[in-house]
């Protein structure tokens, strides 16, 4: 197999450095003609070689002085010619896996936000940038919390407009932790808008690629983002109802699944403002229930709502929501139970059975009827 000569050189250098027969600073000196060359393509090759070396060193090998030098060097290279940026991102990605000196996470993230227009980079380079940011968040959260507004704004700006499905899958997987741990403050609505623009997910995977991201994968991870914090409820629920009321089947399915996530992650008081409107929209799919997938999704969403309203922690006003909702459920099912042609009988019993299984309180109320 043919190996790039720069990669071969990098692997050999990494081996010598890890065996203590060669120092990192010596390598940088030997790469000096490339790293300082007036030709940006040669500078790119020099930085790429250094990045490959770092990527092949043990993560605990370099000391604080070497790491401080690398952080300063790579942050400065982010100001370089645009063709040098991808190699620099690879170098930073290799460096952040190591135990960085204090405040390095702030220096790196600030330099990235100031000097790299994320959405102008190639797909793989955007992925490297996202990986750097979330690695820093995971390892140095306490440091980054001290610059929360700047870091939050930088992340929002970086991800805004992403279209690659694999990158989106990575973002949707990582963003819930980011949203939960970094107070969004006045950027709450902006953060929600950046992720909600993908809802409902409109994407078709390539059937010829078994490893490709699917629409269902993206939709499932996006649910966790849209319901990550209670503060999102007043933005999420109107959007959910709008899409549930649409004529698009996929939008309805995603909305019903999102409603289940909302019941798990939002407070009862947030759902209590909309529960009768939500039930009105769901009942259109429950009876007669001709679309089995939509019907099943509606039953699960209704069951989640009933469980949420069955909590003993609700106050006197909120405690009325469960019997009011169940009264509406019973009225819907009653006509089906009395259907002499039995077309609606089975769908009606399915609704009653699902709701009685949701909670003991719901079972007691409906059985008494």
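^ structure tokens above, recovered residues below v
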């Amino acid at each position: 197999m043919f190996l790039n000569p720069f990669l071969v050189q990098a692997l050999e250098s990494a081996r010598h450095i890890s065996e203590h027969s060669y120092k990192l600073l010596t390598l940088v000196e030997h790469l000096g003609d490339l790293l300082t060359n007036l030709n940006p393509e040669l500078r790119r090759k020099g930085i790429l070689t250094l990045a490959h070396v770092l990527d092949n060193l043990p993560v605990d090998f370099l000391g604080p002085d070497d790491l401080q030098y690398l952080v300063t060097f790579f942050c400065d290279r982010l100001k370089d010619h645009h063709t040098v940026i991808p190699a620099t991102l690879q170098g930073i990605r290799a460096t952040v896996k190591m135990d960085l000196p204090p405040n390095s996470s702030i220096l790196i993230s600030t330099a990235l936000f100031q000097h790299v227009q994320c959405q102008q980079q190639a797909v793989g380079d955007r992925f490297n940038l996202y990986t750097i940011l979330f690695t820093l968040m995971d390892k140095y959260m306490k440091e980054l919390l001290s610059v929360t507004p700047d870091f939050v704004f930088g992340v929002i700006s970086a991800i805004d407009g992403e279209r690659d499905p694999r990158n989106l899958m990575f973002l949707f997987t990582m963003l819930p932790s980011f949203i939960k741990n970094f107070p969004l403050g006045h950027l709450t609505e902006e953060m929600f808008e950046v992720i909600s623009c993908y809802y409902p997910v409109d994407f078709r995977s390539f059937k010829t690629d078994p490893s490709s991201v699917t629409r269902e994968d993206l939709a499932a991870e996006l649910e966790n983002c849209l319901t990550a914090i209670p503060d999102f409820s007043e933005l999420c629920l109107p959007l959910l109802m709008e899409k549930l009321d649409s004529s698009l089947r996929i939008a309805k399915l995603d909305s019903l699944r999102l409603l289940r996530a909302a019941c798990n992650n939002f407070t009862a008081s947030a759902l209590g403002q909309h529960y009768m409107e939500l039930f009105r929209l769901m009942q259109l799919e429950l009876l007669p229930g001709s679309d089995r997938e939509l019907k099943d999704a509606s039953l699960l969403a209704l069951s989640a709502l009933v469980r949420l309203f069955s909590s003993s922690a609700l106050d006197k006003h909120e405690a009325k929501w469960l019997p009011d909702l169940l009264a509406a459920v019973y009225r819907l099912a009653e006509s089906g139970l009395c259907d002499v042609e039995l077309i609606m009988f089975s769908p009606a019993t399915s609704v009653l059975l699902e709701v009685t299984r949701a909670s003991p309180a719901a079972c007691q109320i409906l059985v008494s009827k």
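The longest helix spans residues 292-309.
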